[in-house]
Amino acid sequence: MTWTVAREPHDSPVAAALWRAYYTEVSDRWYQLHENRSTDPEELEREIAADTGEYLAPPTGALFVARWAGEPAGTAGVRLLDPATAELKRVFLHEALRGRGGAALLVSAAEDAARALGADRIVLDTRGDLVEARSLYSRLGYAETAPHNDNMYAEHWFAKRLRQRLC
Length: 167
Known about the structure:
- 34% of the residues lie in helices and 29% in strands.
- It is α+β, with helices and mostly antiparallel strands.
- It has one domain (3-161): Aminopeptidase (3-Layer(aba) Sandwich), CATH 3.40.630.
- It has a seven-stranded mixed β-sheet with strand order 1-2-3-4-5-7-6, with helices on both faces.
């Protein structure tokens, strides 16, 4: 079995299904941790619909889908925040496929896209309970930084230089 990673339209059925899986997992994890319950189904539908991911569309964004043995397994997206800074978004792999190298491939594809968009650095935010994500980012050379946004659920912010500065 092998991984493939390719660009995917942000609004494709595959992207929508993976967004639903991603959001359901992180939302349920938050509610289980803080309120000992799953996400209310109406809230889940409302929040999934509210984030269409259009910021992951060209010309200033990109979405990638990883496939394991041909089946959609995860995503990573990138968008430009300004001409020199990109943001990593929607990094997700189905739980059963974690630990097999797919997340690193997705992040690498997003970093390459960020470079192609002209970014010198890439940033992201995540939560404290998403320990797998924090471990991945550290392993891939991301360093914790001061907050770069006011995302109410973010507890950790990371950045990585994409290009060497010339003196």
